[in-house]
Amino acid sequence: MINSTAMNVAIPSLSEGFNVPFETLQWVITGYMLAMSVTIPLAGWFSDRFGSGRAFLYTVILFILGSLLCAIAQDINQLIVYRIVQGLGGGMIQPMGIAMIFRLAPVNRKGQVMGMLGIPMLIAPASGPILSGWLLEFISWHWIFWINLPIGIITIGLILCFLLKEDTLQKIETNNKRLDVGGLFLAPLSFVLLALSINLDLDAWAVWGMGLIGVFLLVWLWLHETRHPNPLLELRAFREIRFRRGMIVSWIQYIALNGSIVFIPQYLQHFKGYSPLDAGIAMSMLAVTSGLLMPVGGRLFDRVGIRPLASSGLGIIGVSLIILSQVSAEANGLYIGSIIGLLGIGMGLCMMSLNTYILQSAPSESVSRVTPLTSASANLVIPLSIAGLGQFLTLRSRMSGVESSGQPITETMTAYSDTFLLAAIVAIGGALFSLLLKSDPKK
């Protein structure tokens, strides 16, 4: 996760180092993302086939191998290929890790354990740009990849000592180890086409063409997986109303949070005069407050269930975005930082609690197939939310008579304010919908 966010900061340095335009460099990020889209659906089958611990070991080794190759890349083409190798391993690490931890956690402490898991999931994205900026300024871009090696070696050692030595691997029946070939073809292809249509700057006909084919394959995947005896992705979990409602609330959370968080640093730099480092430090308040609240939210989940946490968390997110939409140009950094911190409090209360609720609402024997499903859906919903709110921001700017250059500050700030307000409406709608969630999903 550190590596993913660190690369965004490294793009200008890579452009200078390899003397290539941004259009070529975007494949360093896009290639990694596409590789992840291919392997995320395989995480459940891979885990069931080889055992959770061994499968996790293999994916970490593949990720570290990709990191090593990236660190020694001699040209941009090599770097793109090696980033794809890195993404093939990286795509399975998170869903496998979440499934293992959820399965091993005591029944009455799953919320608390999952809340603790959320802390590094937030610290890593927040620290990635800061670490990358320091490495780029004082050493070189190669160290963005070299730094993965000691972390990976330590991880491999811990896996060998604890996950393989102890008998913690879930045993799967032999007939469940058969690979769902149809799902293997449909899932990666549909996800890749949808991801490309969202993330690449192409002609309209190409975007719509890939998007429509991706949607068609996604529908075909749904029909196939819901009929297959051993599906690659456990889409049949959507038949359970608690799971279905939990996923909808989770998607709403992704839209409100990720669709707005992307634009806050731009707002700080364009209208508050923040440097990239200052904006990154301000955004770290999000990680600090959400990291502090996630364990609290986890413990509360074990006691009171999901409904009060999801409704209050999304409500706080909505309120913080409303306040942010009303910020004036004269507002000081402490005030803005407190708003970002309030946003993190809402995030900390509901994010991992919703993940825990969703996994508890699914059949216990299908957890390894459900976590890739939640990860894959997030990989589609998040860029869609960013693209959607980005289009709304552009539209509001044009409606205010703002051109691409020489933008009047007041009118442009109004466009950002309206974007934050739209995200707030989505969050508050999610808070109301979350009242339909049952507070005790324990099995």
UniProtKB/TrEMBL annotation:
Residues 1-442 form the Major facilitator superfamily (MFS) profile domain. One of its GO terms (cellular component) is plasma membrane. The chain crosses the membrane at residues 24-43, 55-74, 80-102, 114-135, 141-164, 179-198, 204-223, 248-268, 280-297, 309-329, 335-358, 370-393, 413-437. Keywords: Cell membrane, Membrane, Transmembrane, Transmembrane helix, Transport. It comes from the Bacteria. The keyword Repeat does not apply. Its main location: membrane. It is a multi-pass membrane protein. Belongs to the major facilitator superfamily. EmrB family. PANTHER family: MAJOR FACILITATOR SUPERFAMILY MULTIDRUG TRANSPORTER MFSC. This is EmrB/QacA subfamily drug resistance transporter. The lineage of its organism: Bacteria, Bacillati, Bacillota, Bacilli, Bacillales.
